[in-house]
Amino acid sequence: MDLLNGKIKSTYFRYLSAAFGSAMISSIYGIVDMAIVGQYQGPDGTAALAVVAPVWNIIYSLGLLTGIGGSVLYSAAKGGGEKKKENQYFTSALIGTVFFAALSWIVIALFDTQMLTLFGAGDGLLALAERYLQPVKFAVPLFLFNQMLAAFLRNDNHPGLATAAVLAGGLFNVFGDYFFVFTMDMGIFGAGLATAIGALITFLVMLTHFFSKKNTLRLARPERLASKLKKILVTGFSTFFIDVAMGILTMLFNRQIVRYLGNEALSVYGVIVNISTIVQCCAYSVGQASQPLFSINFGAKKWDRIQETLKYALYSTAFFSLFWTALIFAIPNGFIRIFMAPTEEIYRIAPFIMRSYGISFLLLPFNIFSTYYFQSLMKPGATFLISVTRGLVVSGILIYALPALIGADAIWFSMPLTEVIVAVLVVFLMRRYRKKMAGNFPA
User: Fold this and answer.
1) Alpha-carbon distance 367 to 379, whole Å?
2) Which is deepest, 107, 141, 293, 416, by most CB within 10 Å?
3) Burial of 439 per CB tally in 10 Å (0-12, 13-18, 19+)
């Protein structure tokens, strides 16, 4: 595929299909775990995995930080004909990933109890959450490397292998969950074990890229390593912060829900977190499909190709927005039955919670995609502003203010209101930068 001269439409949708498969299958880890554990252990199992959810956000975000940040710079250097810099960015990203993998491994292995308590685990849920994490601890670095490698494989013209790798690990996780949890009667520990082995399988499949003819990634001694790492971290920060923010928001929601509404509502929120993760993965797939096209054509100063890619990306986000919002309004209790063996109280409260929070899905894909767009065009200030506004400032204020000022159930409207405010900001920034960049890179 020729990212600089090939047809945008066919190239974009080929990348989208690969990125969509990869993003969706990667979300299977948490989804299948919660569905199987919820059926085995009931609402308490679902609530325990809701407490664990921020751990995944932290792990994945660190892999995206170096993976997306490094691959954006790698593609921009390739598009600009700076061949010497291409693999220096790859090597720098790899070094950064090793550092973050070691750091997160130490924290999760040694401070899991304190971390889970901070994320909202009470006495009844802490033991379950810790048991799930026991096997996951051994595989923590693999999750970071899988995110980083997938980003570079897409930018090295091998998106299909990234999808195949995640598919292999995801399929094992599906069957492994059932086998370990039910057949071997391991319960929640078995779900964690299946997830850890699935990550190893994904990693091994991705490594085959380095033995293929398509591979152009090489280790190269980085000139001014500290400077390159800084550029990678700045470029990848917004994607990193999206997942970190999701973890922070999940923690804030967990604590507020337990305070105002109790464990039944927390169980329903655990389901919402997983559905929101799927919607977020759809947005990731649009961003990851368009990012190589944006980055390489930005480096080559081909503004018309950037605009055409943007058009198809916006069509895609509109489709995902309407699809998921309609689905959650149509069958809220259908989702509940997938993820747990519900009680009558769960059936009673779930439709209102699911539909109220689900309104946010109308704008969530657009807002998340926008960070990839600005990131690819080397606008870290815009991506930082959007990420922090959406992921911490506005959302955090509303999560605490709405239930205190209006009532406990108002907490479910905090994310819909956040997405509206952020969408207004995104449209303003897109219009502003479009005029500025069209003048710099005329079609």
Assistant:
1) 15
2) 293
3) exposed
